[in-house]
Design goal:
Blueprint (H helix, E strand, L loop, with lengths): L12 H23 L5 H12 L3 E2 H8 L3 H13 L3 E6 L2 E9 L1 H21 L5 H21 L11
Antiparallel strand pairs: 1-3, 2-3
Length: 160
């Protein structure tokens, strides 16, 4: 690679995405601490998935969150201990468990949704709809390319 192709870490897009993701994580943790809530961003993602579609299998949650099974199982155990979710054997397949939000989980989700909306407005300040559309388009392309490179997705036709 020639010197003109060298990219410093501060110019690397992957670093910028990682840095922003870490800042979003810190921001979320600070918000939940202010609310007196003990919930991680990953647990929040699970609560959101269940609020959208309650009763998902652990496998479905694993697939939709890109978590490995042992980590997902630990997160669910933590959420169970807090009284936010319950796991039940799937009557049609006893090898599977279905995960359901409890009343406490719904309350926590609703409480956090209000704060998340307020914080999102602060974080997204000075960004336009077009900015988000471009970001989404770029991230979707990167996801497809990475999944294809990792062998998780069939080759997709290039779109123009």
């Amino acid at each position: 690679m020639s010197r003109k192709d060298d990219v410093t870490i501060d110019q690397a897009y992957a670093y910028l995405v990682l840095r922003t993701a870490r800042l979003l994580r810190f921001h979320f943790q600070r918000m939940t601490a202010r609310l007196g809530m003990d919930i991680s961003p990953e647990q929040w993602l699970l609560l959101n998935r269940l609020a959208q579609t309650d009763g998902q299998s652990q496998t479905e949650l694993t697939d939709s969150t890109f978590k490995d099974r042992p980590n997902l199982s630990r997160m669910l155990a933590s959420l169970e201990k807090k009284g936010f979710v319950r796991r039940e054997a799937d009557p049609s397949d006893l090898r599977q468990y279905r995960v359901f939000l409890r009343a406490e989980g719904r309350k926590a989700h609703e409480r956090l949704m209000k704060s998340v909306a307020q914080e999102r407005a602060k974080v997204y300040r000075n960004l336009r709809t077009e900015d988000f559309q471009a970001l989404r388009r770029i991230l979707d392309i990167l996801d497809k390319n990475l999944l294809n490179s990792l062998g998780f997705a069939p080759d997709a036709e290039e779109s123009s």
